[in-house]
Structures are given as C-alpha cells and as structure tokens.
Write a structure and sequence with these properties.
Elements lengths: L2 H14 L12 H16 L2 H6 L4 H56 L4 H11 L4 H17 L2 H5 L5 H21 L5 H29 L4 H4 L5 H14 L1
Length: about 240
C-alpha cells in the first residue's frame, strides 16, 4: 500500500494510543523507519522460528504498514511545521511595514482631526497599547474611524484608499500571525499523531527484536538482524570517546 493508505488504515488505532503510552522518537525518524523496513525483510526469513515464540507472520507483515503510517504522519508534521516556519519568516518581513503603516495613518489622523477633540480622543485611544495583536487591531480601528470621518482627511489631501488598505492588512496580518504562532494550524497536533504513529511502529519493532534475540541468541549470523544498527554505532562512538 501507499503510505497514505497505510496511514488511513492505521489512523484510528494510532489515535487510540494514550498520551501516557506515547513516546517521542529517540533516533532520527527516517532512520527508525528504515530499520523497521529492514527488520521486516530480515524476519521474513525466520517466520517458522519466530512463530514458535509467538510472533506470527501477520505481525511481521504488519510492520511495513505501521512504518508507512509513521512515514506519512512524519510528512504531515513536517508540512505543518514548515508552514509555521514560513509564516514566521513572512511575518518578520511584513510586520515592520504594518507598524510603519499604522504609525503613518495615526500621524495623518492626528493632523486631520486636530481641531476635533472627540476625534483626537479616539485617535489617542487607538494609539494606546502595544504588541502585534494590538497593532493589527489598531489598523482595523483606524479603518473604521477613517470611514466614519473621511472629510477632514480629504481636506489634508489624504488618500482614502489608505483606509481600505488598513482594513485589508488587518485581516491579512491576523491570519498570518495566527499561522506564525501556530494557532491556526497547530503543528503540535500533527506532531502528537506522528509520535503516536512512531510508538505504534516501535512497539512491534521491539517485540520482534526481543523475540529474535531470544530465538537466535546462539546464532550470531541471524542475531545481528534483531538489533539497531543506529544504536550500535552510537555505542561505538561513545566507547571511542570514553577511551
């Protein structure tokens, strides 16, 4: 099956894994996936021996399905995470321009409404506060105020299209900030599914490996296929650094 088919087939089972049972990957996911695939092919040659200790051929054949589901879950999380990163980069470019627009519009309004205390008071109220969310709200409030009181702005040669620009930018920036903050498409949700998919795969990997290590404890040629090459390398590096 394709990874997306594996993912759809396993999603209900993956979602049912409790948070307490869920583990984050302890090695790069791409390596864990390849090791699961390798274990599947290796253990197929030992079906008869493994069945004696309770590992069925169906379990072995389920391993690439679990790996495919985990691979798809990883891709979904990567997409969501990259989307947030891209939004953060775009926000970094757009927000200074938005602050400048807000400040320019407030300056124009202060001048245009200089003889109207009530309107000046509304301008001052808009200018209060700080932060990104406040700036976005300021742009929207500026648009409302300008639409309601266009004549003094026109009298100073102000381009009323700027009022509509403020409204448009407020909408656009609200969406962009939500994406940048992870509020609109929270990558944490897809990460949780990725972690659960990894856990679902790792449980079976561990079960097959444990059985294989027992069955082939006196057969080094077969035993080697039931341990993690990644961790063997990590342990060798550690031993070399300690020596």
């Amino acid at each position: 099956m394709a990874n997306i088919d594996d993912y759809n087939a396993k999603l209900a089972t993956i979602e049912a894994i409790s948070d307490e049972e869920t583990n984050e990957p302890t090695m790069p996911v791409n390596i864990a996936l390849q090791e699961a695939e390798n274990l599947h092919h290796w253990s197929l040659d030992d079906v008869a021996e493994l069945e004696v200790v309770g590992i069925s051929e169906d379990q072995i054949e389920d391993l690439p399905v679990r790996a495919g589901a985990c691979r798809e879950a990883q891709s979904i999380w990567n997409k969501d995470y990259r989307s947030q990163q891209e939004a953060q980069k775009e926000w970094a470019k757009q927000s200074p321009l938005a602050y400048d627009l807000r400040d320019d519009l407030l300056a124009s309004m202060r001048f245009a409404y200089r003889n109207d205390d009530a309107l000046l008071g509304r301008v001052s109220a808009i200018a209060e506060g700080s932060g990104h969310a406040d700036m976005i709200q300021d742009l929207n409030d500026i648009a409302v105020l300008g639409r309601e009181n266009p004549d003094p702005l026109t009298d100073i040669g102000f381009d009323l299209d700027q009022i509509e620009l403020a409204a448009t930018r407020a909408d656009e920036l609200a969406d962009l900030l939500a994406e940048a903050n992870g509020d609109k498409a929270d990558p944490n949700e897809s990460k949780i599914i990725r972690d659960k998919a990894y856990t679902h795969m790792k449980v079976l990997v561990d079960e097959i490996r444990l059985a294989g290590k027992y069955v082939f404890r006196k057969n080094p040629n077969r035993l080697k296929g039931y341990s993690s090459e990644y961790w063997r390398k990590q342990n060798r590096k550690k031993d070399e650094s300690d020596s």
